[in-house]
Amino acid sequence: MQYSAQSSYFIPWMLFFAYLLWLGIKGLFFCLGECFHGWLEPLLARIVEEPTAVVSPEITTIDLNTFQFHKPVATARAHNRGNFDWSLTFGWEGIPEYENAKRKDETYPVKTPTFAGGLFSISKVYFEKIGTYDDKMEIWGGENVEMSFRVWQCGGQLEIIPCSVVGHVFRTKSPHTFPKGTEVITRNQVRLAEVWMDDYKLIYYRRSQNAAKMASEKNFGDISDRLKLRETLQCKNFSWYLTNVYPEAFVPDLTPVKFGALRNKGAQQCLDVGENNNGGKPLIMYVCHNMGGNQYFEYTSHNELRHNIGKQLCLHATMYPEQVKVELCTLKGKGTSLAPEQEWIFTEEELLKNPSSGKCLHKKGDKLLMSPCNPSDHHQQWAFS
């Protein structure tokens, strides 16, 4: 069966939400969505059972071009839960087996570290108790991650309810225009980092020069009321969140051995992952821009060179004549280990040596290759800037 999202639903939806508010439930469903049969009852039932639960439906896809509603298929496992990366961007990931094991059957809620934010229900009383939204955030961006941290750290829980299904049109680009550009999103993210992340905010700031500058200049608005809210609610710290809510998260070094842009002394250019590199693609050399992003690397306490703005990518040695690339880091926490190709040593001569191969990173022409180490070759010398 096909379903189509129609604008004529607007008035009935508004009336329905008014009824929900009268019941003491806030149901927040932003545009570009349509609800599957029986979507509401599971959400309300869970809130009655656990008033501090902030519940979201299972989200399925509405085709961008045809508006066909892809009916969910019953499975023995729920599909995804929310996460975040250290650029404070929301994403999706599979549900760990130990979380599925806690659930008696497929109808049971799924605990989620973060939520998408556009589709959820919450008790009106609880929504007000935990501080609704940060009303000094601007326009859009970061509010869902902020609320995710706040709910968990202040005694609530985020859940996905598999028996509630809502379709969503996933756009290929944002329809919003920001008068101040992406600075609006950065400002919102700095606000959430300053209030909820404690020292871990430094991990975010190392990945965004704009955010770091905004934080150092205190150019993110007054957060005193949000800090007071955290104190009043006796919220837990961010270390507790990482340990108890999202132990699977890879936490970068709070104080990396070195970090920044890797400049090649011979070429006076910087190592750059290039556009849309999710692993497996060769690196490039580019004019050093000192803005982080594609040129941000960390030399970790495990001797990795990590580019971990979003995905955890590591500099990966190759066999000549294959070009050096970034691959997904093999060291991901408990139960994982460092691949020999991802270990690097900075020598006294400023060479980047891979101990396993005995070769060094070399800018040769327009390529990055592994070559026999030569301390007198400036195109094999690297320094963080």
From TrEMBL:
Entry-linked InterPro entries: Galactosyl_T_C, Nucleotide-diphossugar_trans, Ricin_B-like_lectins, Ricin_B_lectin
Gene3D superfamilies tied to this protein: 2.80.10.50, Spore Coat Polysaccharide Biosynthesis Protein SpsA, Chain A (3.90.550.10)
Annotated GO biological process: protein O-linked glycosylation
Domain Ricin B lectin: 259-385
Chain segments annotated as transmembrane: 7-25
Listed Pfam families: Glyco_transf_7C, Ricin_B_lectin
A single Gene Ontology CC term: Golgi apparatus
Keywords associated with the record: Disulfide bond, Lectin, Membrane, Transferase, Transmembrane, Transmembrane helix
Source superkingdom: Eukaryota
GO molecular function ontology, one term from the record: polypeptide N-acetylgalactosaminyltransferase activity
UniProt KW Nucleotide-binding keyword: no
Protein's name according to its UniProt entry: Ricin B lectin domain-containing protein
